Amino acid sequence: MGFKLKSILILLLTISHAYPKNLLSQRQLENMEGSFNILSYNVGGLPEIISSSTPSKYTKLISPKLNDYDVVNVQENFGYNDDLNSKLTFPYKTDFTGNVPFGNGLMTFSRFPLCMSQNVKWKDTHGIIVDGADQMIPKGFSFSSIEIKPGYFIDIYNIHTDADCDEESLAARRSNMAQLAEYINNTSKGKAVIVFGDTNSRYTREGDNFYESLLKPCNLKDAWIQNVMDGVIPPKGDARMVDDLGQLGEVVDKIWFRSGKNIEINASTFKVLFTEFTDNEGHQLSDHYPITSRIDYKLLDNIKMSDTFGGGGGNGFSFLDKVGGRYPRSVTISTGERVDKVGFTYYEYGLVTAGGSGGNEDTYVFKEGEYLTSMTVCKDKKSLLGTYRISYISLTTNLKGEISGGKCKKDTMTFNAPEGYAIAGFIGYSADEIDRLGCIYQKL
Q1: Which of 64, 242, 378, 441 could share a disulfide with 249, CB 3.0–4.6 Å?
Q2: Contact criterion met (CB below 8 Å) for 254 and 208
Q3: How far apart (Å, rounded) are the C-alpha atoms in residues 218 and 215?
Q4: Looking at residue 424, what is its pLDDT?
Q5: What's the predicted TM-score (pTM) here?
């Protein structure tokens, strides 16, 4: 074989080995990073007799414009839901809760799967006819979890807090923020979070304290402060109206966000849409301006998660903030007619549990090199009119070890850890028993 021909063959072999490897790395990188855009819009959909907008005319015009975004939170969707949905192309959406006085007016539309949704009523509201009339409806917030890639979830909160500026309304709104903070710090512990909606709040208003009561304890950042205000929060009393200052003006609609333990997110833009949601004559389609942001994300492969299975009751919990260090020492369950409690004992934190105090407790201690690979759960109703709860659990290890308890009927779900991962934590909902359950997977 001639020297020239031999050199060409060596070069071709080098390229054939190197190019697929480089190409795969690029594809992996692209799969782990990305972006999507979000929109928050109070659509002014109160029945027209009490609306400050013209929803019978404008809601149909709003509908197709929402399709330009990946995740949309709307507020005040009451009397014109069919019009709002008439031109939408979203594959996923939360349930419509009804017209006044039954619904909360909140809906989320998404290009990503919505894996869990829950509506929560504010504990405190003020005003029946005046002062915002907040007590006319079950006002509150909604929670949804979107799966942006298999195993990666971001928690989405759609909020509409108590309106008006009288002392009773201000006190109710402060209560709303504290209630939301408590919910986030339980349900979304360790997870990436985006809160966007109509907050009825301003940094510049005396009596609003959402930074102290919500943003700071939940480690949330503000997209407007970050992208428009160069990180500087305007002082109290500094009236910054958008009619005078454009993007520098403060609206009551907000976008707040934080990264999670396995997803880094950043609201890289913020924009108040002054002209995009208008009719042919330039009239606004609601009494609020929409706001939007591009959310950039980076997925970390140290931890993945599953969807959850079970009923709709209980309070949210997450072990995510405890997962990621040394693999747990043991797993614990308490069972009887149903599953009362689940937990892991972590080397760094000790025993971490969710659920109640009933049932018979059992603990499985892992041997050297042993870890959980599979979880099977069943759900059943406690009573004929009750909600589903987890009635049975079985956990198996890579060494064929097993711990199980409860009673299983036909409604079952099996969670298998992805290759190279182990079950190292739980996520779900619980009260005195486990209402809903899913897995957190840790990379081996």
Answers
A1: 242
A2: no
A3: 5
A4: 98
A5: 0.91
